[in-house]
Task: structure prediction
Amino acid sequence: MKRICILGPIGDGRVVSLEKMEKYAEFQKKKGNAVFLLAKDINLDVKLYDISEQICSWIGWSDEVHIFCDPKSESFTFCLGMVFVLGKKIKVVENVLYEQDKKSIPKMLFEWEIEQDKSADQLTLKY
Result:
């Protein structure tokens, strides 16, 4: 069983629908994984600082963070920084199109998945 935190846009103005993220969460639960869906399961009726602490705690709890990319969402970008700093393994469930020759969050996510896979292969080869 894995502990999975699902990261996507939080609040109004989502590019990715909450329904789509909920269906994915149910799919993961049926596989026997413990799931926390940030867009649905955090308490938004508190100060923004407290929301940030909740998010950090749940990302810290997780073994993996599964991502629905929304680079225009400030909350998404903020949460993604926490994932990076905490060194969590990611799985990009849904990304957006990006230009190969420009730096962007969607491109960085693609590169991140490749780099973590390389690191895992190197660890396997060492032992």
